[in-house]
Amino acid sequence: MRGRSDIETVAVIGAGTMGNGIAQVAATAGYDVVMRDIEREFLDNGFEAIDDSLSRLAAKDDLEEDPGTIRDRITGTTALGDLAEADLVVEAAVEEMDVKRDIFADLDGIVDDDVVLATNTSTLSITTIASATDRPEMVVGLHFMNPVPVMRGVEVVVGEKTDPDVTEFAHWFAEDLGKETWESDDKPGFVTNRVLMPWINEGIRAYDEGVASKEDMDRGMKLGTNVPMGPLELADHIGLDICLDASRTLHEELGDRYKPAYLLKRKVDAGDLGKKTGQGFYEYE
Ligand code: NAI
Description:
Elements: E1 9-13, H1 17-28, E2 32-36, H2 40-59, H3 67-71, E3 74-77, E4 88-91, H4 97-108, E5 116-119, H5 126-130, E6 139-144, E7 153-158, H6 164-176, E8 180-185, H7 192-208, H8 214-225, H9 231-238, H10 240-254, H11 262-269
Helix pairs in contact: 1-2, 7-9, 7-10, 10-11
InterPro entries: 3-OHacyl-CoA_DH, 3-OHacyl-CoA_DH_NAD-bd, 3HC_DH_C, 6-PGluconate_DH-like_C_sf, 6PGD_dom2, NAD(P)-bd_dom_sf
Organism: Halorarum halophilum
Protein name: 3-hydroxybutyryl-CoA dehydrogenase
């Protein structure tokens, strides 16, 4: 496996919510980053999000370097072949098993054998993703939280075949980006989503059944249990489509106690996906 001091270039696959955040924190930590998406437009959106976030952090005096210097460490590409020089890959493309397996199978032929291949999946099996490659021992879950530059935690997920050195490397890398880690076995939802998704769905169901207004549902959970966001505002923040996909995976794997709330499905069908579309349970500017 590539030595820690040899890690210079980090490839990030996907320039969406999570991918651009991971690219940003890796560049902030001093790594060169190649960010890959399938369309130039998605890369442009990703760079715009990075510029906004770096400007906000600079305004708060939270950066040790000039935002421009950090930004210049990140290049964008639509060609997977441009990741050949990567010393580490972090995949943060859409949460679809077929897409992720295709990406990992392609990576096998592009990056060197001693390069760790990490996935940011929030619910899919690391073992199943890893089996698309010839090097399942090099595949590990590196589950960043949203928004990546702000959230301190990263969940390291250990697949059936993950080499213990690769697991240790994943903890080290996340810590090198200034994060704190915990470890989960490769079981549906890992630690965080296994516990979070039923909480969100129950909040939606209780609201739908008229237990409380959406504001009181969120206020009650915040004031009553000391969490920073209630279930409905957190669902809007994550994206209702992401919550529905995660709930469906858990439902399929773990049974009826993970059934998605009806109102969650109806909102996603209506295209109201939360903050990112300006309308979820709440309306956003
Ligand atoms: P997103 O929809 O914002 O971004 C996904 C990006 O992947 C899009 O720009 C899309 O064009 C790109 N993409 C699709 N196929 C690709 C391919 N073959 N190669 C390169 N890029 C490709 O999704 P988001 O929210 O960033 O999620 C990404 C991953 O992170 C998913 O696995 C998700 O489960 C996970 N995640 C999401 C969190 C969240 O709160 N949104 C939190 C933690 C993990």
